[in-house]
Structure formats: C-alpha cells, structure tokens
Amino acid sequence: MSEGSSSESETSACSSKYDPLKALYSEKPKLPNKKAPMYENLVQYEAALKYNDSQSSAIIPVGQNKLVQQREEEKERKKQEQQRLLEEKNKQRFAQYEVPVRKERRVKNVLTRIEGIQGPLAALKDCVDLELRIKVITRHATGVRGALYGTLVAFDKQWNLALRDVVEVWKRKAPGKRKIPPGLGTPVQKGTATTISPVPVVTETPLGGGRWECTRHLPQVMVRGEHVVLVNVVERR
C-alpha cells in the first residue's frame, strides 16, 4: 500500500487505521456524511443522542441559529404565560383583602356644568364653544335699558352671563333734562384704581326729540340673569 493511501486511511473516520490527531490537522479530511450535525464536544453529542429533538432540553447542533432563536422565543413565551397566571392567581387570592378605592370627587363649577347642559341653554353652550358674538337686550326697573354686544365666556342656569370685549349701547335723555343724584355729580379723585382699570369713555350721539344714544366699550362685563330680556346671535362663523 502506498504512503498516500495509508495517509488517506488514517484520516478517514470509517477506516480501522483512523488517527484522530492526523485527521484534525489534515487539510483534506474525509467525512462519511457531510450533512452530519456538528457539536462543540462529546458531552453535547452524548446529550443529543440521549434526548429527543422534540424536547426543550434537546441539544442543537452548531450553525442552527434559527432553531436556537425559536427555542429562546418559546422559552420567553412560556415564562410570560407563567408570570401572567401567577399574577392572576395572586389577584384572586388577595381580592378579598383589597380596600375599595374611593372615587375622586369631581369639582363642580360653572365651567364643568356647562359641559353637560341641555335644553334651551345648550344654544348658549354653542356660543361659548364657537366664540360667537351675541346681542343681549337688558332692562331696568321700568323697561328696556339697552343692548350689549360681546363674546360669551360663561353662563349658568339663572342666565347670569359673563361677556368680554363688550360694546354697550343705550339711550337716555339730553344732558339738560337728566336728573343726576348729588353723589354721582361729584368727580372721583384720581388714584391707583383708575390706573389699573380706567373708567370707560362714553360716546354720546343726539337722536333728536331730547334723546341721546350712548355707547361705550367694556373689556369684561358680568350681567345678572334678572336683567336679561333677550339673547340673540349676531355673528356666526
């Protein structure tokens, strides 16, 4: 037998002259089955023969990364399922000892009551949500006083209205026919109040027949419901 054939028999795993050391360092080792699985050591090989591949403890050969990933995902899924079952069991176990949680009491005010308002006042809610300008006709003790043109901010069931950017228009007698109480005729001394909130300027226009039309602009106005005669939308979007 030639030296080359002797060398081949020593590197062939099926030969009686197989030399594992030479096969390890050989450049062209002969493999009985090229598709045979590869393991890290003999312990893994023995474990692979002992356990079935369908078991979770089966040894996966080298290079089967996809199988390794699938097994890890299955382990994670089972772990989460066990954790969920444990939490459910503990929840049922301690349910009888739980103290009922007291619901937080919702604060009630004008703005919160507006949200669930129904009936005729729902039209005023649309004016608040859409920021529509409205006309409010007001009255005094003996009849109609005038009108307010402004944007509605808030209201309540008594028809108390909060308006902003208001233009007030009303009529009164000519200056020579007015009866002004003595207290109202005395000018107010200038102080810090006038610098914080200046007195609105009233513009008067004669209409004839001893009647004058008065107009003034007010940043904010609070109108009591007992003074409201009629509310009308004057500007729609």
UniProtKB/TrEMBL annotation:
Keywords: Coiled coil
Listed GO MF terms: U7 snRNA binding
Stored InterPro entries: Lsm11, LSM_dom_sf, Sm, Sm_dom_euk/arc
Coiled coil: 64-92
Residue ranges of every copy of the Sm domain listed in the record: 119-237
Transmembrane region(s): none
Family matches, as SUPFAM superfamilies: Sm-like ribonucleoproteins
Cellular-component GO terms for this entry: U7 snRNP
Protein name, per record: (African queen) hypothetical protein
